[in-house]
Amino acid sequence: xxxxxxxxxxxxxxxxxxxxxxxxxxxxxxxxxxxxxxxxxxxxxxxxxxxxxxxxxxxxxxxxxxxxxxxxxxxxxxxxxxxxxxxxxxxxxxxxxxxxxxxxxxxxxxxxxxxxxxxxxxxxxxxxxxxxxxxxxxxxxxxxxxxxxxxxxxxxxxxxxxxxxxxxxxxxxxxxxxxxxxxxxxxxx
Length: 189
Description:
single chain, mainly alpha, 3-methyladenine DNA Glycosylase II, Chain A, domain 3, 2 domains, two-stranded antiparallel ribbon
């Protein structure tokens, strides 16, 4: 696989990390395209404009968005109906860019400017208090552009790094506890 091509493809994707393309995020989808294992028309958030950019980059014919992966829609953000939120925190892990803030048994809220509209938080909510609201009243929020994609990618990378650090720290703590328990164990008689 040519990493340079995959990186160029990824740079054209909207970085919503929505998984609607059938891959676990924009980077895996870009890698699949570069290996010719996925088509250029599987990204609903990128829409026809994204398909056109990919077709130009790869010098392949432009084609319509494959409806199997969804339809192109106006940009939307998640909104939490605050009076219905029970603070279960089930919406926090699936958010790829940490756009939802809240704590256990506390009301949660969405940082609209950080939300990519991926919809991954909607299904885990046990009380259906998360809705997707199209952005129509604010041109700066409703337009998806390279700047927003870059910010979304940065937030995604930061979350991924934070989770990796937490996992490493947990493994180190467990290893240290295991070593301490070994020291406390009486020697075999």
